[in-house]
Specification:
353 residues, 53% helix, alpha+beta, rod-shaped, Beta Polymerase, domain 2, Methane Monooxygenase Hydroxylase, Chain G, domain 1, seven-stranded mixed beta sheet, homopentamer
């Protein structure tokens, strides 16, 4: 459950803007990659945490930082690019809610990348922060491995418009791959959820309830992380920052908004499905239980009067006329069969079994 | 369930605006029909995928394209009409949420056509996209067979104002027939749902639960696809695009908004009905189960003490005064009948059966 | 259930604005009444469907049309008063959602008149449409008999301000009597619902569930028809049409808005009451069932061990010491009574009955 | 239930603005009190229904009218102060929803005063209407006895700013005491609701369900009447009427808004509590029922096989080896005890009792 | 429950702005601390309730008052700083809803500080009010002990920008530590709630229901107090008061808004978890009960027919062929075993146990 709520406790009482890493350290040394490109060319270079970050006039720069725990590095980046201390504080605190914020000198986006861990059966999140202005974009992530390879390929191969546009288009391209990965995740969970339906209808056992609850919780977790992304994109669409080139880039973000709405509706659909499954499970179980109890009760109800008749003929009355009669025993069995048969016929006619 | 969420997976990481078909290929070769008309005349010609699309000054053109998988054709149409790459990407991705988008050179509408498949008992959807500007409208659909024949007849026979108005009116006319087909679908589902009521009240079996759940799911599916159409039309009404002639065409879209609200309310009504049926089913079943259990329990409760009395007179005590008495056996039966009668009378007075 | 959703099916694909009657024909020939009046005088004349509709300068005209199926008459009225084709189409389609629409030359209001039919136990609706401009108002209704007599009396007797004001005030007066009739209907249903409470608390049977469901459905039906009236009036209040004299007439419509809000809240209150009754019914029933089952189970639990003891003394062991003893039988009965008494005392102390 | 919906029936079809009393006449003759005051002095005089209402230049007047049924008096007041006929109609109709309305010459406020009647256990409402302009305020109430004494004292003793401010401040002061009385009422109901908790946890009986339902209904009633007061105050805050002195008086109304929000949230809290209690009741009851059924069923399950064994040894087979054996009877009892003990041990180990 | 709704009763009818303490007196004498500082220096002095409050030109002052019951002191502070009477009334009434209000000469914030009391298992609240203008801030709290020590340290040690900024930044810093303490509280409650999950899945007893209900109530309480803080901060963000330096301070409040949204979502998440646990508990319990009833009923259903057979052979018919046969007794036992075995096999095959 710790996933639901990252601890901010240690931060209590620090000055706002203090560069303190809050989260789980997932790698030893930060990894830095600098891509610089313009309409004409593209180059990528790996930096280590001490090497200076080059300045390339007339080129756009994309600095990708993996690992957030090195305060010195963070401080250096903040100073070089003139980033707002609050933005940097949020970058280093991995318990952020997805949001878009406008500062005077740059824009700030933070959101979660999501991945389904097949082993634990849980969705894992990793925080991504983007800071960008006209000609640079800095992306911060917690660990190696991301969904941005297609963007890197498009950059290196010069496919599409990505080299010709500014940092806002690059930010869009990165967000787009993340939203795509959300959709992939929902599809994946959705297939697992679809599989539950047959199991619910067919002889369900109790384990399915906790399985349904697990998926409900995962979807709740996903919903909680994705929902603010809608506001994030709405914020970009409403923004009139000079760093977002309305005429050219806004249609792309508008498209993204449609995708995220679609995703949220799908999460909702699957949550409804799970609730329906739970109801179906309860109906199935209680209907089966009813069947058992009904049949058994009918069973008892038939034998209880028969036992009574046997009891009557087991009494030791001195003067018991029937007992002397030679065929009494056979008549007794006949009586028993008639009573049982009548009851069966009656219960059946009443559609009780 | 795949209907709920069309796969976008294969698209992961493509450059935005890339013309890639996402969906199920439903026919071999695309079918193209070009209608051109003005107040004076009307002509329709079938094109094949290589033939050039004519340009008719002072005439409106309606190009109807069936089949979305031919990227070359799509590319050619995009270039000839100057369509936005994002719009074309959405046309070819059949997993779109209904939406209205304004581009500089044209407007874009995408939504679903719905049809009830009697065999599978499921609602099937087909994506329709409309791109239009002042004097042309291009409609893209996935397969042959649509609900537009009345519009074609009105065009060919010159009924109504359709030939005299621009592409916005044609777009309205197409949307209107689609919304009409929604209403027809809801009516059709509604009649099936109405039929359930009697079956629920009259001796219901378990199969009705899964049937109710099926209809709930279909209505959820329909709701999910129709609900964004409301926003789509609201978007058109808010738009101040030069391609929509406010004074003349907006009243028609306003009318359409009333229809779609009406449709959504009806879907809601039927969903409420289904929930009521489900509750009614549970009440009926549990009330029937209660009846059975009550009657059987009363039955047992009467015979259990009687068996006890029979047991008492079956004991083998040496000195058992009553057993010697001549009429004991008959008195025993009298006792049994009195006890049973008293209990029946008591239970009846308590209104237990 | 057909009441929930008037068929539009036959209309599929007609040109918008086509004058086609959709609904149930409720009378043979349309009935027309023309009232014309001003501050000085008032006259009313009955027209038949062919007679021309007079033009009275400096007078307001109210044309009341009963029966919507005569397309020729409709066409004539449309042309004489210059009505918008979409408005006329809506007038003739009795499956409209209540709405207010502004056209250039006149305003359009459509809503439902409601009446409780004691025989069927259902609420019946009839569509009323009002079209008005500065000095005329045309009202269309489906059948004879309405709630407008008080307005007619005020007109003929010159009571209140009705003769001195324009068509907007007349429209208000008509809407006011309709909203009054809504309130009367809710009061009437409310009294029936109030009567249910005692029956639910006192020995309820299953029929009450279907009765509660019936009222829920009727209230849902009423809610569905009345709710859009709120938007209708809000639309009038927002309107800046020259046909509505803001300073003089708007306070009246504002008053009407308060009434309709009040009505909707009352429908909601009664729906909540019905849900509470349903819960109360289930509590009452299950509590009664629990009582029965508990008492009967206690009954059985007492006799089952007694039968065992009788069974023990009914065994045929050769050496059975107690059986020879003279007072065994009486001791046996004593034992039985002590066991039964102890159990009763124990169950009572545990508050089980 | 009549409290939920005051009859407007008799009003059907009256001209709007007609002065007709709708409600229950609660006193014989109306009582009038006129307070006039300014920064320098204050005087109060009781009027009877025929005496003229004085005019005091440079003084504020507060006319308090108790009893609404005297149309002549109402007519006289309306004319003297130039009140709008719609406002006067609403004053005399006691079935109003709380609202604030602006007329050209004065403002109009109507809302309910609430009181808990210990005898009937119901909340009673009385309608209060305020009409005020720059220097006069007229308050109409249905019966004697109100919550305004503190305001009267502040006026007569000159405490606070009340004498120095205009009629808007007086209106605020009156509304403030009414909102205070709402809070007192909720506190009072809240204490009664809190008392229920212990009774629910401790041995609850069925009567508590109907008691919980009663409180739910009363809170629903209170909510229905108080909720529109929020809109009323919001309306005042939005108003730019010259009769409300924004700079001086608005902070007070703003404060009132906070109070009414607080009150509504508290009603909501108590409604949630009641729902929790109801659930707790059902859990407690069903858990108790489960205990009883489980124990009794275990009881029966132990004796039924024992009876079978007794039955076996009661059979009359000629050749029955065990019966001849001398210690059979004691072995039989041993067997019985072992079987019973084993079952008890097994059930206990399974934690069934 | 008194925590839910602080009594305002005693206040009924007081003049608005009267300085009357409403709440629980938590300490004997008020404690005053005055901090004054600017970019250059910082000094703190403890005052007693009679000593004058110094005036320090070119310095910011923070006056911290603990204890609200001393009306004379309150009056003196109000006069010295020119505070609005309504603000002071709210400071002294500890039953306030969190809110932000703008007055001409200063701003006013009131909200709750929350703390979990391990002994009572309840969340305790203490009211904090902040009044500030350009260069002073006065904070009022109910008792000693708060969460502001980090702010005091930053002030005394000159860390961060706190000494260089105005009173608005100080207000932000105080609010920030309070929101941090909310987060800490939710984390703490969340850990306790997480612990419940295992106990629900593993052999749950009834006590867990009341425990879940307790946490639900605490979260409801927390939600009720924190939710208005969202509006409070939104109010600050919307404000254009000269005392809030938009460019410099607003980003900090914007950051705070994100935190409070995050907190509210977490409360919501935990409430959902608790509801899921409650459902899980009911499923677990009813599933266990079903198991017991099913097994026991099967048990009885097997022995009841066996008892019947024993009864048959216990009858005393004179002519009873089987009884004479030598091996009858052994055949009888065989029959019993076959019948019992068949039933067991049948029930098992039907998956009834």
């Amino acid at each position: 459950m710790a996933r639901f709520f990252k601890k901010r406790t240690e931060n209590k009482g620090l000055a706002p803007g203090a560069l303190v890493f809050i989260g789980q350290k997932r790698l030893d040394k930060p990894i830095l990659n600098l891509h610089h490109y313009n309409g004409q060319g593209y180059k990528q270079e790996a930096l280590n945490e001490d090497s200076p970050i080059g300045d390339f006039p007339n080129e756009n720069r994309w600095l990708n930082v993996v690992g957030l725990h090195d305060s010195d590095l963070m401080d250096r980046i903040q100073k070089q690019f003139g980033l707002h201390p609050l933005a940097m504080e949020d970058v280093m605190n991995t318990g952020q809610r997805a949001k878009f914020e406008e500062f005077d000198d740059h824009l700030f986006i933070t959101l979660k990348m999501l991945q389904f861990n097949e082993e634990t059966g849980q969705v894992q999140s990793e925080q991504l922060s983007l800071l960008f202005a006209e000609d640079f974009l800095i992306s911060f992530q917690e660990q190696e491995g991301d969904v941005f390879d297609p963007v890197r390929h498009r950059l290196s191969e010069g496919r599409g418009m990505i080299r010709k546009r500014g940092a806002d288009y690059l930010a869009y391209a990165l967000l787009d791959t993340i939203v795509d990965s959300y959709i992939y995740l929902i599809e994946h969970l959705g297939e697992k959820i679809d599989d539950l339906e047959l199991r619910v209808l067919d002889n369900p056992d109790e384990s399915i309830v906790s399985e349904i609850n697990t998926y409900k919780r995962e979807l709740h977790f996903v919903m909680k992380l994705i929902k603010p992304v809608k506001d994030l994109i709405a914020g970009i669409l409403r923004s009139n920052s000079p760093f977002i080139h309305g005429k050219e880039t806004l249609p792309y973000f508008k498209d993204l908004e449609g995708l995220i709405l679609h995703t949220l509706e799908s999460v909702d659909t699957y949550r409804n499905l799970l609730s329906d499954y739970l109801n179906l499970y309860h109906t199935t179980i209680s209907s089966k239980m009813n069947d058992i109890m009904r049949v058994l009760t009918i069973f008892s109800a038939i034998f209880i009067p028969l036992s009574f008749f046997a009891g009557v003929y087991g009494t030791n009355f001195q003067y018991f006329p029937e007992l002397q009669y030679k065929y009494s025993y056979f008549i007794f069995w006949g009586l028993i069969l008639i009573v049982a048969g009548t009851m069966l016929w009656y219960f059946r006619r009443k559609k009780w079994f």
